[in-house]
UniProtKB/TrEMBL annotation:
Recorded metabolic or biological pathway in which this protein acts: Protein modification; protein glycosylation
Record keywords: Disulfide bond, Glycoprotein, Glycosyltransferase, Golgi apparatus, Membrane, Signal-anchor, Transferase, Transmembrane, Transmembrane helix
Protein topology in the membrane: Single-pass type II membrane protein
Protein name: alpha-N-acetylgalactosaminide alpha-2,6-sialyltransferase
Gene (name only): LOC102352533
Enzyme category, top tier: transferase
């Protein structure tokens, strides 16, 4: 693997779940890829000059090169509650937790979920992850109706709202349990996080506004927001999804897809993970999205490597790390 410096937080608490993912990973072929102490989220503790000087060496989602220190500091300093630093900040308060294992459903937007009847099964998990154009209304039988975590970048969220408005995606899901996790690509994400937390207009940049953003509801509070750490995204690229384009002059346009970051984040935090709506080798049988009104074949772009991601999901399923939904009659 490429030699990289990652922040090393304290080791996570030992899990009470008897056969959690971390115990299975160390017995699998993935044991050398996995770092138990990688930081998944960033918050106020990380807003230091030392961290800025280290992370400004990396561009895009992999660091802070394209964001000035004041913007980082203003945004991250608002993420100063324990809820911002923990993925499952409400676990101890959940009245319905039946055992010591945190079971997660990670729901992609793939057409394989159309007419899958997986909605009830998805809803029965402790937490449900969704990303980008997660259209729920009208598709509950296939995809469920709960959203514990909505994962996005400002760019992917706005693009989804523009592209899928016709099928009912008007913005991120909103519910009492829903948390919002930014995958920050550049300063737009930090500026939106600040405006949403403080309920003020976006004060600068391309998304500058006259009114506070309402994507997440009104006055939602800082406890609802989390932000992926750039070290985590870089680690996923370097160890799990190193693509051929990274050896070319076009390397700067590539990053793991939002769905891939979502699923790998769940693998690094949950005890059990079931993945639905992710690409499988028979993907040509299915439309691009479960909500497509007409059949749209999957289109490949250079900024993500969906075939590489598909192989990773297959390998993780085969190794017993995740349970991958592969279509009706194939599980």
């Amino acid at each position: 693997y490429i030699k990289q410096m990652y922040m090393t937080p304290p080791p996570p608490p030992k899990k009470a779940c008897p056969n959690n993912i971390r115990k299975r990973i160390v017995k699998s072929s993935f044991k050398d890829k996995f770092l138990e102490t990688i930081p998944v989220l960033q918050w106020s503790n990380h807003a230091t000059e030392g961290e800025y000087n280290r992370l400004k060496n990396y561009a895009g989602a992999f660091g802070w090169q394209n964001v000035d220190f004041d913007t980082i500091k203003e945004s991250l300093n608002l993420l100063n509650s324990s809820a911002n630093s923990q993925m499952f900040d409400d676990w101890d308060q959940r009245p319905n937790k039946m055992n010591s294992c945190i079971c997660c459903a990670v729901v992609g937007n793939g057409g394989i979920l159309n007419d899958s009847q997986m909605g009830r099964e998805i809803n029965q998990h402790d937490y449900v992850f969704r990303a980008n154009g997660a259209v729920v209304k009208g598709f509950e039988k296939d995809i469920g109706n709960r959203t514990s975590f909505y994962i996005f970048s400002t760019n992917t969220m706005r693009n989804s709202m523009a592209s899928y408005r016709g099928v009912g995606f008007l913005g991120p899901p909103q519910s009492k349990e829903t948390r919002y996790i930014f995958l920050p690509d550049h300063d737009r994400d930090y500026l939106l996080a600040k405006a949403a937390i403080l309920n003020i207009p976006i004060d600068r940049g391309r998304d500058k506004s006259n009114n506070p953003p309402t994507f997440f509801g009104e006055r939602v509070g800082r406890e609802k927001f989390k932000v992926f750490h750039p070290d985590f995204i870089r680690y996923l690229r370097n160890r799990f999804l190193w693509a051929r384009i990274l050896n070319s002059k076009h390397r700067d346009i590539y990053r793991p897809s939002t769905g891939a970051v979502m699923l790998l984040a769940a693998i690094h935090t949950c005890d059990e993970v079931s993945a639905y709506g992710f690409m499988t080798p028979d993907y040509t049988k299915y439309s691009d999205h479960y909500f497509d009104k007409k059949f749209h074949k999957v289109v490949f772009y250079s900024n993500h490597d969906y075939r590489l991601e598909m192989q990773l999901w297959h390998d993780l399923h085969k190794a017993g790390i995740i349970r991958l939904y592969q279509g009706r009659g194939n599980n």
